[in-house]
Every structure is written in C-alpha cells, then in structure tokens.
Amino acid sequence: xxxxxxxxxxxxxxxRALQIDPAHEPALEAMTSxxxxxxxxxxxxxxxxxxxxxASSPNRARELRAEAASVVHGKLGDVATAQQMFAQxxxxxxxxxxxxxxxxxxxxxxxxxSALAELLENKAKEQRGRARVETLxxxxxxxxxRLTDLRRAAE
Length: 155
Known about the structure:
- By secondary structure, the chain is mostly helical.
- It is 75% helix and 0% strand.
C-alpha cells in the first residue's frame, strides 16, 4: 500500500477482496494502515472492531478492541464510549494492561474515585508479589485521601 502514490485508490479493491473473504487479514491490515495514515479515525475504529470480530483468538480480539478504544479516546475524544469499551475488555480480561491503565486514567481524570477503587481492587486480585503490594497501597491511599473510607483503607 505504501508504494502507491494514491493509496486511497486501493480502498475499493481491498473492499472487494473483503466482500469475498471478510476475514482476509492482509486486506484488513492494509485498510487499517490506510485509515491510520489518512487520520480517518472513525473508519479506523470501525476497521479495528471488524478485525476484532474476525480475529482467530480472544487475545488478539482484545488487543484490537483496546486499540480501537484508544483511538476513540485519544483521537475522537469520546471518553464515555472509550470507557465502555475498555470496561468490556477489562471484564473479559481483568489483567489486560492497556484496559487497566486507560480506565485508571479516565477514572482519575473524572475524579470517579469509587470506580477507581473498584478497579484497583480487581487489579490487585490478579496480581502477585510486589505488584500486588503496590496496588494495595495505592488503593489504601485512595480510600484514605479521596473516599475518606478509613475502614476500607485499613483492609
């Protein structure tokens, strides 16, 4: 695709290829690249979600959905939709690092402390060792400073 001087001319052919085989990964990847390069964010999100639906593994599907959610949040500025998308990824995989980080950022920015506390509790359940200790300390500080829930902070 990058070798063509007008990559947008390639789109109809990729679309025709996808009509024949909707899961054809080279055509899906090429269209994803075209939309990303053209900064066609809405089309990129739709393509990433289409690729997620066609993905051969649940892990790959979650990665594509996380990328779509990142575009929705960062490029389209639709925080509510991105939050829903990341929450669904987190529900499917409570250890998904991109979903956890994004939700932490969204909840912190919105000052949604109770949602952040719940997220951190669930995050800690999936962790072991030092990472779990750090998350539990962060949760304790959140409960003490933001929720004024000293009983919960002491747990």
